[in-house]
Amino acid sequence: MNLVRNHVLISIDAGTIMAGARAVEKALVDEINRQGLAGEIAVLETGSIGATGQGVVIVVYPEGLYYANVTPEDASEIVEEHLLKGRPVKRLIMTEMPRQQVIRKEKTGLLKEQARIVLRNSGVINPENIDEYIAEGGYEGIERAFTELKPAGVIKEIKDSGLVGRGGAAFTTAMKWDFASKAPGDPKYIICNADEGEPGTFKDRLILEGDPHKLIEGMMLAGYAVGAAKGFIYIRGEYALSIERLEKAITQARLYGLLGENILESGFSFDLAVMKGAGAYVCGEETALIESLEGKRGHPRNKPPYPVTEGLWGKPTVVNNVETLANVPEIIRNGAAWYRGYGTDKCPGTKVYTIIGNVATPGLIEAEMGTTLRDIIYEYAGGIKEGKKFKGALVGGAAGAFMGPEMLDAKMDFVNLKEYAAVLGSGAILVMDESTDIVGMLQSVLHFFKHESCGHCVPCRLGTKQLVEIVDRIAGGKGKVEDIESLVKISEVMRDTSFCPLGQSLNLPISSSLKYFRDEVYGRVQQPA
Amino acid sequence: MSQEKQCQCAEVQEEELYPRLEEVIMEHRGKGQDLIMVLHKAQNLFGYLPKKAQEMVAEGLNVSLNEVYGVITFYNFFSTVPQGRNSVKVCLGTACYVRGSQEVLDKAQKELGIKVGGTTEDRRYSLDVVRCIGACGLAPAMLVNEDVYGRVKSPHLPDILAKYE
User: Fold this and answer.
1) Do A447 and B35 touch (CB under 8 A)?
2) Would you call B64 exposed, middle or buried from its count of C-beta atoms within 10 A (0-12, 13-18, 19+)?
3) For residues B5 and A394, which has the higher predicted lDDT (pLDDT)?
4) CB distance from B81 to chain A under 8 Å?
5) B75 vs A237: CA distance, rounded Å
6) How far apart are CA A69 and CA A77, in angstroms?
């Protein structure tokens, strides 16, 4: 690497590309060349830095200064003033900064405050360059696994860390791996569930785009632990940039001998393939995903047998979420005790949240387990937009639960939320201000589920249709009190009798909306005479 | 350009694409498990999945036509009707819905004179809805082909649409 004076990081993700990031990048490079600064200043692409809606974002190091809404026309001023003369361009300095980005661990030692494990590299390294991942300690986990831990040791380390799945169900990761490693059958498979379809969730996308090698290393470790030689990444067809980055990363890893036969002379062979999904929400359910990987309609299977004993093509299979797997290399590299330093006793580690809706700075944050909803909204996301009042939040995706103001101080983790009949789910937090219409929200959720019900089982296929008709009636002002009771009753039957979590989980948004916004919902129906 | 002429050229192109589909199928011959991958490639070629292509895929991968059709209709991504040259997709995911994407969709239907799932007569645009494209921070969002538009308000629509020929 050349000795450069300044690094200019330009955030490249779907949002910034849309805002013209490529044009800004070109303008910056041209201007740097024109000023004869090519050897001194490097322009690097990085993944999302976790701020959305602020146009093209660049960061100038070593100052660590953020500029927002940069246009190609600003390039000459930035180069001339800041990079040449050392005077920051004040009018472009980002004002609404994502908090976790402000505190850089190397400057303040406040790693605890920042709590970035999964997103540690996102927005910091160039995701298209394997060397940068390695420079940040990447692939050290797999090295430790080969030389020190061996497969059983990897499972033990993950077990000691207390890692649970981050896809929504919160199943103990080590247990899944242990079952699969002991299950008879050969070959075994690792599947990464990157079919991120939960409305309001785009955390996996940021991991895939910002740090694809972390996922690859996580899958290698899972493969090593359970004795699988082949892994599949089932990814949403819509995630074009993620697919491109991932395929590039896999090619690089192969070139470095980190994927393929006899990796690092360990005797362990492992390779990966990317499989594009075709747009079906139900394929986020692991057995439906497996059906889809086999080239079929994505109908969920009967359980048991579970995938750990009979999964892809009837062989033992581990299905893990992107965020879960992205935790794994850090745990193996730093040890379970280090990991337990984050989060709560029952729920160690961090959670990546996508926080959206009526907040000042929507985007992605990673916070320790046990952080309150209030801190997430007011500390990380800048509070409610336009100074309005907080009304409630839909937490955990469309199949999640509404929470009212009384829940602001509840500690957010998988175990604690269960006590309030709420879920962390995929980590989507949709914040609603005082002007939001709860019935309209329910309508949107129920329409979504009707559209995505796969039609396999009766309660879900017919239930979602009925629920939509009823909620539309209520929204149209023609509903009756009995209609609200029917919503509850139908969703309860669906919860108890549906084949897979899609139909089972609809009761949650319905019952929780009535729990916190009962008067509003009842106010929308015709009052009995 | 007259409409008739355009339709003809689309048909001519379609005929020319079948040998290329044949090549794709050759790579996956007899492998039923590759069905979705092959359908992705076929749809990339034609823009939709014409019946003849479905039959070729079924035959080549050794699965029944019934199964192929079942898979196509199950997944949102696949279409059996011709698509416009530009696909307009309005996101109706929860976050976008809250931020007013229904209004954007209504305006798009009015502007294009078609309903959701339809294609304009000149085959310039197709209109669809999607449920979340992972751009919730930019809600309401829409897609035109591969381009994402965020914070869309209905008055922006004519300008956005005009960019695509």
Assistant:
1) no
2) exposed
3) A394
4) no
5) 11
6) 14
The span from the CA of A494 to the CA of B76, in Å, is 24
pLDDT tens digits for range A326-341: 999 999 999 999 999 9
According to CATH, what is the number of the domain A6-97? 3.40.30.10
Going along A381-503, which residue ranges are E strands? Answer: 390-395, 401-403, 411-412, 428-433
CA distance A99 to A116: 12
| pLDDT tens sequence across A224-278 | 999 999 999 999 887 888 999 999 999 999 999 999 999 999 999 999 999 998 8
Instruction: For domain A438-522, give the fold.
Output: de novo design (two linked rop proteins) (1.20.1440)
Question: Given an 8 Å threshold on Cβ–Cβ distance, is A276 in contact with B37?
Answer: yes
Domain A130-338 carries which CATH code? 3.40.50.11540
Six-digit token string for A519: 């008067």
Assign A176 to helix, strand or coil. helix
- Look up the ipTM and state it: 0.73
Residues 6 or more apart from A47 whose CB is under 8 A from it? A11, A12, A13, A122, A123, A127, A206, A209, A210, A211
Phi, psi (degrees; rounded to nearest 5) at A391: -100, -45
Distance from CA of A98 to the nearest CA of B (A): 13
Domain-by-domain residue ranges, chain B?
3-74, 86-162
From residue A178, give the alpha-carbon distance in Å to each of A1, A29, A152. 43, 51, 9
CATH placement of domain B86-162: 3.40.30.10
Instruction: Name the minimum distance, in Å, from the CA of B9 to any CA of chain A.
Output: 29
* Residue ranges, CATH 3.40.30.10, chain A: 6-97
Q: Interior CA angle at A278 toward A277 and A284, to 5°?
A: 55
B2 touches chain A (CB under 8 A): no
Q: What is the pLDDT of residues B62-103, one digit of tens each?
A: 999 999 999 999 998 898 888 888 999 998 877 787 778 889
The CATH number for A350-431, chosen from 3.10.20.600, 2.60.120.560, 3.30.43.10, 3.40.630.30, is 3.10.20.600
Between A119-123, A312-316, A415-419, the lowest mean confidence (pLDDT) is in A119-123
